[in-house]
Amino acid sequence: MSGKHQSLNIAALCFAALTLTSCAGRQQSVVNPAGPQSGQIATLWWFFLALLSAIFIIVMVLTALTLTRRHRGIEQEPLEATHLPPPQTEAGLTRVVTAATILSIVILFVLLVTSIITGKNLSELQDRKNPMVIEVTGQQWWWQIRYQNSDPQQVLVTANEIHIPVGRPVMIRGTSHDVIHSFWVPNLHGKRDLIPSRVTTEWIQADRPGVYRGQCAEFCGLQHAHMSLWVVAEPPDKFKTWFDGQLKPSAAPGTAVLQRGQQVFMNHACIFCHAIRGTSASGQNAPDLTHFASRRGIAANTLPNTMGNLGGWITNPQNIKPGNHMATIAMNPPDLQPLLQYLESLK
Ligand code: CUA
Q1: What is 26-66+88-239's CATH topology?
Q2: What is the pTM of this model?
Q3: Cα–ligand 1 centroid distance for 337 (angstroms)
Q4: What does the pLDDT look like over 49-104, one tens digit per residue?
Q5: Cα(194)–Cα(257) distance, rounded to whole angstroms?
Q6: Which ligand 1 atom is nearest residue 217's CA?
Q7: Nearest-angstrom CA–CA distance, 283 and 226
Q8: Of the CATH numbers 2.60.40.1120, 3.90.1300.10, 3.40.1500.20, 2.60.40.420, which one belongs to the domain with range 256-344?
Q9: How far apart are the CA of 201 and the centre of ligand 1, in A?
Q10: Which end of the chain is more exposed for a tag (fewer CB within 10 A), N or C?
Q11: Residue-wise pLDDT tens digits, 262-283
Q12: Secondary element (H or E) of residue 89
């Protein structure tokens, strides 16, 4: 394959990769902003892209012109052995280099100033008077979500899925239980690291309803790639309905099979790590399962929340997510089906 063909192929591959990554993830995309914070970031990104693309094209055109131009006067007057250009060419070159240096400095300053202005605008998008605060704790490899409230009755703990009301600024107070993770929901804001024994904050706001994907953005161990979350932005009344529903204790098992399933859960080691409000299970080391069936995914959204996936996950969690902290629990085969049905009844 010729060099020209090879570089054309590489360029086509890069273009395809860029197009695919920006189109495949409308639910997780920096260039599809859903709120004012991500809007500011996207505007800055487009400005950088336009300016730097223009510079790239100009530099490439000038390089091509220089390479293809015949050296003026080379026929009449061969260069001296010293290769020194004549004085008038030297002066011209000095002027061009000086102008290019000044222009580069000006352009870098423009980029710096626009970045600072964007940062300042972002820091002003807050609601200090009546903040809605959600604590996000990164853990290997899932997200604990806690809706803060001065009234303990209104504190809600859940996992791997955040619901927010549309149009309201929400403060994410992030921290970590183990290593450094990073909270990143590209449609809503940039990355914010979650650091053990420290609290970092970030304000997000969604201006249109939608389900936006977030992903841990700091390498945090074997299953870093399987650490995602959903942010569900809903109209305020729908959010209120969801929130009030989530505050309620778990649904009581209504049938004999569900009762059996609940007993299986209570008689196994599940209760040491998981909590189901309204039962005696109150473990705090793993996702709260009170309304487990209302969530979209299992294992930090590694798999969609279906009974089949849940069966595979409980039977052998290390097969699906090697290295994760979920214990493999020995269970009699007849116990599994009632347990799955019970967990999937926790709407
Ligand atoms: Cu958590 Cu990467």
Answers
A1: Immunoglobulin-like (2.60.40)
A2: 0.82
A3: 32
A4: 999 999 999 999 999 998 988 765 555 555 556 667 777 888 888 998 999 999 99
A5: 41
A6: 2
A7: 23
A8: 2.60.40.420
A9: 17
A10: N
A11: 999 999 999 999 999 999 999 9
A12: helix 87-124
